[in-house]
């Protein structure tokens, strides 16, 4: 494996296939005659002299013509790598001197036909998430994404993970707490859908990441309107179809959030465990720059369909209702593309508490 890896690196640095094979033959013996190299590398004896000259000019070997036959010596790793290092340094300086920074950001939409590239884009979406990631992916992809999922969870990102066909690939001994907030499985082949923070994501045919994808492709996007549409589709049509495999415990109280859906999910989990909640919540009326803060107001209703029995009245409804001095107020998210058009108020921040009978 070391020899194959070195062969790949040498060709990447510009050595021809014949030069690479000749150098490997010399390197393996330390010192070799041209006949040794010819036999070891499968190269004609006459051609070895030309290759040896090229390798010597690159600083990889030295040629001793004072002996008969001529001896070819592999130079020490320090000397051999020094030439590559110098070239890389010079190349970096040359690139920096010519590089002109582009003001153009990544494209809002990218079409990807390669499975490997699609997987890289999914990892990138997860790695850049700040608050949440919603995934509907083939179960066989989990092993490819688990490092990114684990890192995201360690950053405090909420992960809604739905593993679909081939469901026999769903791991049975995984400690899901490390990788997801909620895990579902569904024996179906819906489109691959990954959305982070309602801003970026990947959507494509199921076969782009499972089986033979032939002409399948994926759409990589970084536009809120597109992200919101795919998120709504996933939460409304795919997520409810799954069977629960894992549900994490809610965050310990008190807990503060600036992302509304994360607050709603944790509130629903606490209520499912029999707790009553109050909150300090700062809200912003739609169309206004002004905010209002309510302290220790009861959470009287939770509308959502992500965890437990659905309590929403329409597919993407996700909000908390508070009993305030100004009456009951429903608050949705104040960021992302799914603005609280229905509730009338956006949740700027919230701290959830367990309600005490002494309050």
Structure description:
With 359 residues, the chain is an alpha+beta fold. The chain has three domains: 2-98, Arc Repressor Mutant, subunit A, CATH 1.10.10.10; 109-247, Endonuclease, Chain A, CATH 3.30.870.10; 255-354, SH3 type barrels (Roll). Helix content is 34%, strand content 28%. The protein has nine helices and 17 strands. It has helices at 2-12, 17-29, 34-41, 45-57, 77-98, 115-127, 142-154, 224-238, 260-272; strands at 31-33, 61-64, 71-74, 109-112, 132-138, 158-164, 182-186, 192-196, 200-204, 218-221, 243-247, 255-257, 277-285, 291-303, 319-324, 327-333, 345-354. The chain has an eight-stranded mixed β-sheet with strand order 4-10-9-8-5-6-7-11, sandwiched between helices. Strands 13-14-15-16-17 form a five-stranded mixed beta barrel. Strands 1-3-2 form a three-stranded antiparallel β-sheet. Strand 2 and strand 3 form a beta hairpin. Helix 2 (17-29) crosses helix 3 (34-41), helix 2 (17-29) crosses helix 4 and helix 6 (115-127) runs parallel beside helix 7. The longest helix has 22 residues, at 77-98. The protein is elongated. The protein starts with a helix and ends in a 5-residue tail after the last strand.
């Amino acid at each position: 494996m070391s020899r194959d890896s070195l062969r790949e690196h040498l060709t990447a640095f510009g050595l021809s296939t014949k030069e690479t094979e000749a150098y490997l033959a010399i390197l393996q013996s330390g010192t070799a005659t041209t006949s040794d190299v010819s036999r070891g590398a499968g190269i004609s004896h006459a051609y070895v002299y030309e290759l040896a000259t090229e390798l010597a000019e690159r600083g990889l070997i030295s040629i001793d013509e004072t002996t008969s036959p001529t001896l070819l010596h592999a130079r020490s790793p320090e000397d051999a790598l020094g030439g590559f290092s110098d070239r890389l340094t010079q190349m970096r300086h040359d690139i920096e001197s010519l590089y002109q920074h582009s003001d153009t950001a990544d494209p809002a939409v990218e079409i990807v036909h390669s499975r490997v590239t699609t997987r890289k884009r999914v990892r990138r979406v997860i790695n850049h998430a700040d608050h949440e990631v919603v995934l509907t992916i083939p179960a066989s992809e989990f092993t490819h994404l688990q490092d990114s999922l684990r890192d995201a969870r360690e950053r405090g990102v909420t992960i809604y993970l739905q593993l679909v066909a081939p469901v026999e690939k769903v791991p049975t001994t995984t400690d899901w707490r490390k990788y997801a907030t909620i895990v579902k499985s569904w024996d179906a082949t819906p489109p691959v859908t990954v959305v982070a923070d309602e801003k970026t994501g990947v959507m494509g045919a199921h076969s782009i990441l499972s089986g033979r994808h032939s002409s399948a492709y994926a759409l990589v996007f970084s536009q809120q309107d597109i992200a919101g549409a795919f998120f709504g589709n996933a939460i409304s049509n795919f997520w409810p179809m799954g069977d629960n495999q894992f549900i994490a415990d809610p965050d310990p109280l008190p807990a503060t959030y600036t992302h509304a859906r994360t607050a709603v999910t944790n509130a629903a989990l606490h209520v499912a465990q029999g707790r009553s909640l109050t909150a300090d919540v700062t809200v912003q009326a739609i169309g206004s720059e002004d905010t209002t803060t309510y302290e220790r107001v009861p959470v009287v209703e939770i509308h959502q369909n992500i965890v437990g029995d659905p309590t929403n009245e329409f597919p993407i409804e996700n909000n908390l209702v508070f009993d305030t001095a100004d009456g009951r107020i429903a608050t949705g998210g104040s960021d992302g593309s799914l603005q609280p058009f229905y509730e009338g108020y956006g949740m700027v921040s919230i701290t959830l508490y367990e309600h005490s009978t002494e309050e």
